[in-house]
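Lab notebook, entry 297. We have the chain sequence and a SMILES string for zinc ion, and the next step in the workflow is to get a structural model of the bound complex before anyone spends time on docking refinements. Request logged below.

Task: model protein plus zinc ion, output C-alpha cells.
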Amino acid sequence: MSRLFSFRFDVDTHRCVREGMPALVDLGTSLGVSFTFFVNMGQAVSRRGSLFGQRNEPNEAHPVAAKLPTRRKLGTVGYLEAAVANPKVGVGSPDVLRSAAIAGHEIGLHGGTNHATWQRGADSWSDARLAREIDTVLPALRVLLPSESVPGFASPGWTTSPALPPLLKARGFTYMADLHGPAAVGGASAAARGIVEPTSSACVSNVRTALTGEPGGVAYLEHLVASGLDRPAIRDRFRSDLREAGDEVIAYDHPYFAGIEGLDLVRLCVEVAQEEGYSVVPVSEIVERDMDIEGCC
Ligand SMILES: [Zn+2]
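Result returned:
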C-alpha cells in the first residue's frame, strides 16, 4: 500500500485566513502538494470574551500539552481585533478560500457560527441546534468552491457529537475529522491500524488525526516549538512520529502559526514525508481510499 500523508490546518481566526492560509497555499504550490483547510466561517470569539472556549485551557481535570500563547500567534493588533471586532473568519475572506480551492487544496467546514461557542458546548446541543449552526454557514462556503461540494467537517476544539454523522450525511459530507492522537495500541501493528472509523451513519467516516500534541489535541508543530525543540530536533521527531503512525498519517496545525512563524517547519515536514516515501495529499484522499463506498450515496 502506498503511503499517504496529509497536513490538516484548522482556520480558526482572521489572522489564520488573511495571513497564514495564503502563505500555506503558496508553499503548497511551490512544493507541488495540496493541503486540507477546515475553515471556521463564523466568529472566533464568544460573547463571554473567551477566544476558544475554556475546554482546552489546562487545569488539573483536563491537562493539555504545551502550546504557545494566543497573543504570540495572533500578534498584538490581531489579538485586539479578535477580542473587539471579532470578525467573521471564512465569510470575511471569500477570495482567499476561492483561491485556495482553485489551487487544488481541499476546503472543509470547521464548525458553525462561532468557534468558541461550539468548542465549549456543542456536545450538549440538540440536533436542531447543530443543524442550524451548520446550515447558517455552509451555503456561504459551498458557493466559493468549484464543485460546490464540501466533503469534510471538523468540530472546533474536538468537541464532537454523536448526532453529527446523520446531519453531515444529509448535507453531502463524506467524512468528519474528530478523532485525535495516536490510535490505541492494540494487537495490530502500527502500520496496520486503520485511521478511518465507521460512524452511526453509513457513508460518513470519522478520520483520526494522529500527529497532535497530547493530551488535549494541541497543534502538532506549535506543540513541538512550545516544548523547546529546535529545527533539527523537530525534523527527527517528525520522522520518528511518521514511522510510528503507519502508512496513513494526518498532522494538525493552524495557519496563524504554521503559515507564519512555522512556515519553514511545514516545508521541512513535507520534505521529510516525501523522503520517507509518503505522497502528500488532502485528507479526503485518505478517506476515499479507506472507505467502503459500496452502496453509498
Ligand atoms: Zn479550531
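Notes for the group: The beta strands are 3-11, 36-39, 106-109, 152-153, 175-180, 196-198, 205-209, 248-253, 278-280. Worth checking against the assay data. The chain has a mean pLDDT of 91.
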